[in-house]
Specification:
Length: 261
Amino acid sequence: MTIKRISYSILLLLLVISCKTQKVVTSSPVKSMSSKKIIKNHYSNTFDKNTISARLKAKYKDKKNSQSITVKLRMEKDKAIWMSGTVLGIPLAKVLITPDRVSYYEKINKTYFDGDFSLLSNFLGTEVDFEKVQNLIVGQTVLDLNGKRYDSSIDVDSYLLEPKRQDKLFDIFFWLNPTNFKVEKQEIRQPIEQKKLTVSYPEYQNIDGEIFPKKINIVAVEKTDRTLLDLEYRSLEFDKKVKFPFSIPSGYKEIKLDEKR
């Protein structure tokens, strides 16, 4: 596992989710609620700060390798997401995501990627855009729940939402916390491609009155390959002035989409 692969895996796993699970409904103290009201409560608690400045610990593991990386994250809502990865204080890679572009470079192999979201959408097998990335980071549903009709049920101690009519290419599910209506888990499955990935939010924190993820756990499966990525926010500030220093160094080699597989 090269540093390029590890760093790029962090970017990809922050961009989309995918997987489907069987619905298991059990008795629960959670009161039944209509999907319309659940969705309304979810959006009433949407992230409303302008900027994020954070430091995360990222732990990556697959069947052959494991690695821990420190990630600096800066975000200006609806405008830019910037990440810088280091190991033992040594800079490894930077990522800059804007509403129309994804740019990335890594220092070990001196390579870079600079393109639009259609390339990543092709690679991942599902459409990716800036809003999905942003929602994933702040604990919101990656899809706009107002765009479809949903069925609601109680799954253990969470509200489970699923579209009345699933997409032809994938199925998607959302588990929401019955207290704060933030996302506890998001899943989609692509059975034809034999891909699945689960993104869970096992812990939230209250920062300046904002309920925000503290941990994000990601499990990606493609056929028989399984990849784990655990993210934990170690420091977090809102509405602080942020900058996004990013410039692809000269002499770096452009990497194509098929090279990242």
